[in-house]
Amino acid sequence: MKALRLCLFAAALACTPVWARTPPAMAPAAARADRILVDKSERRMQLLRNNKVIRTYPILLGDAPSGPKRQQGDERTPEGDYRISGRNPNSRFHLSLRVSYPDEADRKRARLRGVDPGGDIMIHGGTPPGYRRDWTDGCIALSNEQIEEVWSLVPNGIPIRIDP
What we know:
The structure is a single chain. By secondary structure, the protein is of the alpha+beta class. Helices cover 20% and strands 25% of the residues. It has helices spanning 2-13, 104-113, 144-153; strands at 35-39, 44-49, 52-58, 80-88, 96-99, 122-124, 140-141, 159-163. The protein has an eight-stranded mixed beta sheet with strand order 3-2-1-8-4-5-6-7, covered by helices on one side. The longest helix is centred in the N-terminal third of the chain and has 12 residues, at 2-13. It is globular. The model is unreliable at 3-20 (pLDDT under 50).
């Protein structure tokens, strides 16, 4: 079932070849977010500037959203404090912003359990309009239109807090 959903998403994205996309320009510095708050239980992501919410987005998460990410393949979205550590304008899910998971504490917990902590946690597009079911492997998913706005408002390096 998951493979079918991913195929449907890939087909929807195929309408715009990766090479034809130009990522949105960054918003002026005064309009950019300085941190991100994610509430997994509410399926909500907020962009903040000077402790004021400037945007709120509904989000979708991993197929097994309850609890923190513990290892590669558990399909959970991490919980805790991270940073936006990079961006990919050629993501297969339209655009993506990298979350700095795993941090050293995540790696240590995984090492103690003898497992791989996983990685490649992103905020990305690819959710078809109106789709309301968690579908990622642990990422935070938005619509393509929403990720374009987030892309322009979120600079690299800002903190992201992911709450249960």
